[in-house]
Amino acid sequence: MKHGRISIKVLFCVLMIVSLGMTTISAAAKPYQIPSKEYKELKYRNDRGETLKLYGSKSYQLQWVKEFSDGGDIVTNKTKDRIIVTQNNSVVSYDLNGKVQWRYTLPSFSFNHYSLLVGADGTIYAVQRPIKLLDEYESGHVSALSEKGKLLWESALDNPKATAFLQYGGNSKGTFVTFNDDGIIGIKNGAIAWTNTEILQLTTTDYGLYQLSSSNITGMFADRQGRTFVQTDTTLYALDDAGSILWSRDIKGDFTPIRQDQYLLYTPASGSLVLIDSSTGKNVSGAAINSQWLLDTSLPIDRKGGLYVSNELRASKNGISKINMKGNPIWSYKIRYQGYSAAYEMTSDPAGNVYFSDAGGTLYSLDKDGNERFILLYRNKSGPTLTTSVIGKDGNVYALLDNIGLTKITAIPQK
Questions:
Q1: Mean of the per-residue pLDDT values for the chain?
Q2: Are the CB atoms for 231 and 218 separated by under 8 Å?
Q3: Which of 29, 205, 242, 273 is most buried (most C-beta within 10 Å)?
Q4: How far apart are CA 163 and CA 166, in angstroms?
Q5: ∠ CA(232), CA(237), CA(242), 5° rounding?
Q6: Residue 105 C-alpha from the chain's centroid
Q7: What span, in angstroms and rounded, lies between the C-alpha atoms of 183 and 196?
Q8: Which pTM value belongs to this model?
Q9: In 3D, which of 361, 401, 399 has the Cα closest to residue 380?
C-alpha cells in the first residue's frame, strides 16, 4: 500500500553482498529459481498499465480475490481466524473463506492514511490521519474496536505539527499509546490518561510555503505485561501503564518480546542476537536463545532455528537472509528485478516459508531453504507500493494488493 509504511515498518536487517540471483553462504546446491516463462497473466494491472503476473503458477493460485480499490492496512485477530482490513473508509473482517463477518464504518476525513493495530489485549485500533504537506493540519482519529467489530471508544488525535506518520502501541491494559505536540500520550476509554514529556523531540523545518516536522521516535511496541517500549534514533525506553519510564538504554536495532515477554530479542545492525531482560533493560548474560521461544511471536522464522532478516541496512542492501540463533548467516537471497532491492513487510507461515514485498508491490515467497515458491509480479511505478501480507490460522497467506483488494494465495492441489 502506498501509505508511508516504508519509513515505519522496515523489518530486521542483515548480511553480506551476494551475487546475481540466489547465493547460499555454504557450499550447498543453488536454490531453485522459477523459470522466466513459468507464469500466468492475471486480469489485474499495475499503474503502468501492465498485467500482473504470477510466477510459479503451476503450483500456486490466487484462490479468491475480494476486489476494492481503497485498501489501507491488514492484520489478523489474535486467533488468526479472521483477516481484518481497511477498505473504502471501513474496517472489514473476513473469515478464511473470504466471507465478510462484520464491517465498521469509520468517520470520514480527506487524505486519509489508514493504520490497523491489534493491541496486546486483542483490541483492534483503527487509526486515521489526514496527510497534508501544507501547514493546515486536521486532527486524526482512533477507533477502538472489539474482535466482533463493536466500537469500544473513539478519540480525536491532535496532529503534531506536520508530522504525517506517527507510531502507535496498544498494551495489555487497554491503553493506546502514541504522541502529540505535548509528548507521548496514553489514551484509555477515549481520553488521554497520561502524558510523558521526557522523550519526544520535534524538529520543524521551514520550506517557505510550508513547514514540516520530524520526530526522534522511530518505533513503538507493547508486551503482555502492560509495558510499552519506545524507540528513538539512539535510545530504547520502557514505560509502565502510567507513562513513567521504567528504564532506558542507548541501543539501536530491532526488538521483539519473546518467552511470554520475559525477554526482548535484540537484532542489532551487525553482530550476534542478544537477549535483554524486559523488566530491567539489561543483557541476559550466558543465556542461549531457544528458537522455540520465537514460535508465539510475529518474527519471520523457519521453525527450525532460523530467522529471516532484511539486508537493507547491511552492505548488500538487497533482499533477505536467513540466520541462525547466533546471528550467523545460512543463506542470502537477492531480488532479481532491476530497480528493486529492499525487502519489506516480512512474515512467515507455520511451514517456515517466508513472504516479503519490494517497493514496487511485488510479493515474493521462498521456502526455508531459499527456493522460490511463487512471485506475484506487480512493479508499480509510483509509490512506494508495499504489498502487506498476513498468515491465517490455516497456514495460507492473505495479501492486500494496492488498488486491487484482498487475495488468498494457496497451493494448487496435486492430483
A1: 85
A2: yes
A3: 273
A4: 7
A5: 125
A6: 24
A7: 6
A8: 0.87
A9: 361
